[in-house]
Amino acid sequence: MTAESIVDNPGSTASGPAVLVLEDGSRYVGRAYGVVGSTFGEAVFATGMTGYQETLTDPSYAGQIVLMTAPHIGNTGVNDEDMESSRIWVSGFVVRDPSRVVSNFRAERGLGDDLEAGGIVGISGIDTRAVTRHIRAAGAMRAGIFSGGGFGLSDGEQLDQVRSGVEMSGRNLSAEVSTSESFTLEARGERVGSVAVLDLGVKTSTLGFLAERGFEVVVLPQTVTAAEVLALQPSALFFSNGPGDPGASDRHVELLREVLRAGVPYFGICFGNQLLGRALGFGTYKLPFGHRGINQPVLDKATGRVEITSQNHGFAVDLPIEGVSDSSEGFGRVEVSHYSLNDNVVEGLNCLDIPAFSVQYHPESAAGPHDANYLFDRFRDLVIAQNPVVTNGDDT
């Protein structure tokens, strides 16, 4: 159960009417799904045809009411292996047609079971295509789902509660999703060095892919300082994905600048891409409705190859996609390495004078596609190039 939720009867199977209310007054009446109650967050849509479990358990979705554009959700059930974290993070869940049966050999339970166990207030039976088209036109906005006692409130009372909710702009959610204690994953195969991972909402599959590349993965809470990171003498630094506004993460930006000035190689994804942009001296801005799903086309400028990528972000780096820019923070030349073919949004940064790069999308993409998985190899190669001795299994 999220801080934005009020659950009438935790653990009970939802039934009865429900309504999704957007802050512009739009209303969509359906049936309660998950648990009965009221919940609030930013309404966004995810376009993946598969991977609903990975979406629900991705910490980057904290604070958001997620609408699935695929009409039939829950047919493959859920399992422990596909969890991207220890819990469901969405503030609310919106689907058109929840599956009445589970039919998959990997399923261990139904999706409804996890929604109920997690105290997730949802709604089903509404025209999700109409909601998606509305959000595309009007932009992501605050919303609320009301069932049970909340459904009985007047339209005006429901709208007032929605409009009193916290906006995503200016919101820092790192403390809500980050680990409270550091922990380490051993390298798999030949050890090539250690990577300090700042957990801003990191996913399990990301850590696994780093370990598979021979990194000892040291996962750190978002409260860590630059001095503490450097004291570990890591071979590299990694900033994870995460929720919230990058403009509200000044402390993490300063941490990154200090570690970059120490010459430590860096790789960032999603939120980590936005924070690299800020560390280099560039701004960020909020997208009208963001990129969320596992079918987002991106162009790799270096190769001309189009990658289909997994994305979940509502903010982007403000930088021209052509030409080379100079970092106002003294980090030299920077170029946009990837950009979205849907709207020309910056999807990757490459530093030409320091060992640092980042992408806006999720190369681990446990639910697929796997077009961008090579980026973990690129990171490994960058670290080895900067620290040749690590090929002998010794990064001291």
Automatic annotation (TrEMBL):
Catalytic activity: hydrogencarbonate + L-glutamine + 2 ATP + H2O = carbamoyl phosphate + L-glutamate + 2 ADP + phosphate + 2 H(+); L-glutamine + H2O = L-glutamate + NH4(+)
Pathway(s) of this molecule: Amino-acid biosynthesis; L-arginine biosynthesis; carbamoyl phosphate from bicarbonate: step 1/1; Pyrimidine metabolism; UMP biosynthesis via de novo pathway; (S)-dihydroorotate from bicarbonate: step 1/3
Source superkingdom: Bacteria
MF (Gene Ontology): carbamoyl-phosphate synthase (glutamine-hydrolyzing) activity
Domain Carbamoyl-phosphate synthase small subunit N-terminal residues, every copy: 16-146
Keyword Ligase: yes
InterPro entries associated with the record: Anth_synth/Amidotransfase, CarbamoylP_synth_ssu, CarbamoylP_synth_ssu_N, CarbP_synth_ssu_N_sf, Class_I_gatase-like, CPSase_GATase1, GATASE
Keyword Ligase: yes
Residue segments, region CPSase: 1-190
Family annotation (SMART domains): CPSase_sm_chain
CDD domains cross-referenced by the UniProt entry: GATase1_CPSase
Residues the record marks as active site: C270 (nucleophile), H362, E364
Keywords: Amino-acid biosynthesis, Arginine biosynthesis, ATP-binding, Glutamine amidotransferase, Ligase, Nucleotide-binding, Pyrimidine biosynthesis
Free-text function comment from the UniProt entry: Small subunit of the glutamine-dependent carbamoyl phosphate synthetase (CPSase). CPSase catalyzes the formation of carbamoyl phosphate from the ammonia moiety of glutamine, carbonate, and phosphate donated by ATP, constituting the first step of 2 biosynthetic pathways, one leading to arginine and/or urea and the other to pyrimidine nucleotides. The small subunit (glutamine amidotransferase) binds and cleaves glutamine to supply the large subunit with the substrate ammonia.
Similarity comment: Belongs to the CarA family.
Oligomeric form and interacting partners: Composed of two chains; the small (or glutamine) chain promotes the hydrolysis of glutamine to ammonia, which is used by the large (or ammonia) chain to synthesize carbamoyl phosphate. Tetramer of heterodimers (alpha,beta)4.
NCBIfam families in the cross-refs: CPSaseIIsmall, PRK12838.1
Protein name per Swiss-Prot or TrEMBL: Carbamoyl phosphate synthase small chain
Organism listed in the record: Luethyella okanaganae
Gene: carA
